[in-house]
Amino acid sequence: MSAVASIQLVRFTIDDLLRVPEKAELIRGKIVKSMPTGFRPNIVAGRIFRSLADYSDIPGRGFAFTDRMGFAVPELTSGRESFSPDASFYSGPAPAKPMKFVLAPPDFAVEVRSEGDYGAAAEREMAAKREDYFEAGTVVVWDVDPESGTIRKYSWADPTAFVMFATGELADAEPAAPGWTVAVDRIMA
Q1: Is residue 7 pLDDT above 80, yes or no?
Q2: Mean pLDDT of 72-101
Q3: Which of 50, 84, 86, 162 pairs with 171 at a CA distance of 20 to 30 A?
Q4: Cα–Cα distance measured from residue 29 to residue 79, given in angstroms and rounded to the nearest whole number
Q5: How far apart are CA 12 and CA 79, in angstroms?
Q6: Is the Cβ–Cβ distance between 138 and 156 less than 8 Å?
Q7: Model confidence pLDDT, tens digit, residues 13-25
Q8: Which residues face 64 on adjacent strands?
Q9: Are 19 and 27 in contact (CB under 8 A)?
Q10: The pLDDT of residue 6
Q11: For the chain, what is the mean pLDDT?
Q12: Is 41 in contact with 114 (CB distance < 8 Å)?
């Protein structure tokens, strides 16, 4: 008689993710932790959040969130079940349990590049994450590059095309955040 070792695979849930102290996302039942960001990317993300927060102060517009906000979504084709963008805007209702994640995707998600977010492999990962956002129902995703001082705006209507915003221009997140604009100079200063 031979002994067979059994391996029990644990599939983590959104409730498990809520207990993780670091920034993380749920993908294929696994908790995937994110590396801390650097000085400049964090300042850029903070400035975007601050502008979105001012925009969302008008009652009925929605909510602006920082980088630790969790959005739980039904499992996507990739296996992803959550997002935690660097900044975001959500126009839906507040969660019934306000200490929990929003049970929907953000309308507008901001991904600010960190030091390790450059090169061919990083580009593939970022494109895959944008596909996940759009599959979940996100309307606009920004790819913010602090090194070049540019913002690429992608939209669910044409997910592979982008609008580039650079120094001297106003960036928008239409139609996800109607009427909101922010100066690229202010974000990248």
Answers
A1: no
A2: 95
A3: 84
A4: 8
A5: 12
A6: yes
A7: 888 888 888 888 8
A8: 89
A9: no
A10: 53
A11: 93
A12: yes
